[in-house]
Amino acid sequence: MTTLIYCFRDDLRLHDNPALTAACQQADYLLPLHVSPLPQTTRWGFARVSARRSAFRHSALQGLATALQQQGSGLLHASGSLASVLPALASQIDATAIYCEDIATPEEQDELAALRACGLAVHSHWQSTLLARDSLPWADAQLPDQFTRFRQQVEAAAIQPAAPLPPPSLPPLPPAARQLIQPLAAMDYPAVDPRSSFPFPDAAFAGSEAAALAHLAQYLQRGLPHSYKATRNGLHGIDYSSKLSPWLACGSLSARLVLQQLHAFETEHGHSDSSYWLWFELLWRDYFKLLQRQHGRRLYHPGGLPQRASPPHNPAAFQRWMAGQTGHALIDAGMRELATTGYLGNRMRQIAASYLIHELQCDWRAGAAWFEACLLDYDCSQNQGNWLYLAGLGTDPRGGRRFNPDKQAAEYDADGHYRQLWSQP
Ligand SMILES: Cc1cc2nc3c(=O)[nH]c(=O)nc-3n(C[C@H](O)[C@H](O)[C@H](O)COP(=O)(O)OP(=O)(O)OC[C@H]3O[C@@H](n4cnc5c(N)ncnc54)[C@H](O)[C@@H]3O)c2cc1C
User: Molecular function terms in GO for this entry (predicted)?
Assistant: First the structure.
């Protein structure tokens, strides 16, 4: 009898989860596990994960535990590092191997290396991009150095993702693990701010797979892909962009499923430049994940990929930026929205990040750390890739993006509604 452990990471779902499906196919008994890291403080002096982001992840885990129970399985919750939990657990239940998704970021790679160093057999599967790596016409190290070249080559070769997998049948829990499974400890969720563009913890915006699938379904049913391109740079409201990112980031939604359903929508309701643009943006997501694979730790150099000198920093200005007290009404509105709700639209992220880097002359890594703490959709590869891009230390062919905040306010908040909405914390 084969006993395996499936360790959920940023793939908190049953649908389209090839690593989980492989574990289910190999196991007679399977223990689903999630290990939450212990709280940490960043070198910039604030908690690495905000209460709101912890709560969103908690709601995703609750949804996962419920879905597993409905199949007669369950989810074991632990906290610490993987290496502090798994060796003893594997020996306690006689598990012969650990299955999990592969994540290219350095800390997540280190976690698996530490498990292997303990003598555990770890099978990790790459599964979080739309496009399978072996469908691409280049090896990891030869990824095109600009997004446009990447997209053009993908489109010229008509590369498409494989169809998403259905949820697998879960093998029973190992007998020795049954008494270990306890409900997830309750957590107080912060209140919803009525101004929020992603109003978690309203039930429709909970982190679970069920909420993610329902959100995607209503987004398509309401025909919103046909207005996406025109509205995606909005600053306020639920519908101006897809709002899929928090679920994609914790993995309660698979990008391949999104694309499959988008294609079904286009077959029924027609293809438009606007619906195409969702694919275009999802390709950015793939690009940053593949860039992480290509460059590994080099993406974390203070001077980015060109390994320039460390950037300047101004701690007092950084504090004012985080607190929404720079004195620039648009920037302050954005920073208040971020801290209060955990969400910020793409345009406002760009404007706020550019302001920190180019106007306040602060270290982009401090800004990236604040986004990490706050964003419900925090995804290390996306955050790092976007910050480096804006700082001109990544793969931007124009060598960085400096946004004029007054021009941006005039273009994207001409009536001042957004600045007024967030004029108070
Ligand atoms: C400084 C900065 C930091 C960012 N940090 C993150 C992060 O931690 N996690 C994250 O998911 N996104 C991040 N983004 C990218 C982008 O802002 C969000 O993905 C998007 O705003 C999420 O809202 P949405 O799902 O409604 O997006 P939509 O506009 O509806 O886009 C659909 C999907 O396309 C992908 N996408 C869109 N824009 C980008 C982009 N610029 N880069 C990569 N993928 C994109 C996302 O998966 C998104 O869910 C960051 C952008 C900037 C400028």
Answer: DNA binding; DNA photolyase activity; FAD binding
Same domain, 226 and 327: no
Answer yes or no: are the C-beta atoms of 74 and 33 closer than 8 Å.
no
| Pairing mode of beta strands 76-79, 3-8 | unpaired
Alpha carbon distances (Å) from 390 to 310, 322, 409: 16, 18, 18
Residue ID of nearest Cα to ligand 1 atom 30 = 242
Helix (H) or strand (E) holding 315: helix 315-323
Q: What is the CATH number of the domain that holds 90?
A: 3.40.50.620
Q: How far apart are CA 71 and CA 415, in angstroms?
A: 52
pLDDT reading at 155 higher than 90: yes
| Domain-embedded: residue 288 | yes
Position in ligand 1 atom list of the atom nearest CA 345: 21
Which residue has a Cα nearest atom 4 of ligand 1? 383
Q: Is residue 79 part of a domain?
A: yes
- Residue-wise pLDDT for 350-363, tens only, equals 999 999 999 999 99
Pocket of ligand 1 (CB under 6 A): 232, 241-245, 248-249, 278, 281-282, 284-285, 288, 345-346, 349-350, 353, 371, 375, 377-379, 382-383, 386-387, 390
* pLDDT tens figures, 97-112: 999 999 999 999 999 9
* Total number of residues shown for the chain: 425
For 36-87, how does the pLDDT look when each residue is reduced to its tens digit (9 = 90+)? Answer: 999 999 999 999 999 999 999 999 999 999 999 999 999 999 999 999 999 9
Q: How far apart are CA 98 and CA 84, in angstroms?
A: 14
Domain span holding position 326: 301-421
Rounded to the nearest integer, the mean pLDDT of the chain is 97
CA distances from 122 to 29, 73, 102, 161, 170 (A): 16, 21, 10, 26, 19
Q: Give me the mean pLDDT over the 243-268 stretch.
A: 98
CA 141 to chain centre: 23
Instruction: Calculate how far, in angstroms, residue 381's C-alpha sits from the geometric centre of ligand 1.
Output: 11
Task: State in Å: Cα 281 to ligand 1 middle.
Answer: 8
Instruction: State residue 292's pLDDT score.
Output: 97
| Overall number of domains in the chain | 3
Q: Are residues 93 and 50 in contact, defined by beta-carbon separation less than 8 angstroms?
A: no
CA of 92 to the centre of ligand 1 (A): 41
What is the rounded distance in angstroms from the CA atom of residue 144 to the CA atom of residue 153? 9
Q: Residue 198: inside a domain, yes or no?
A: no
Binding site members for FAD: 228, 241-245, 281-288, 377-379
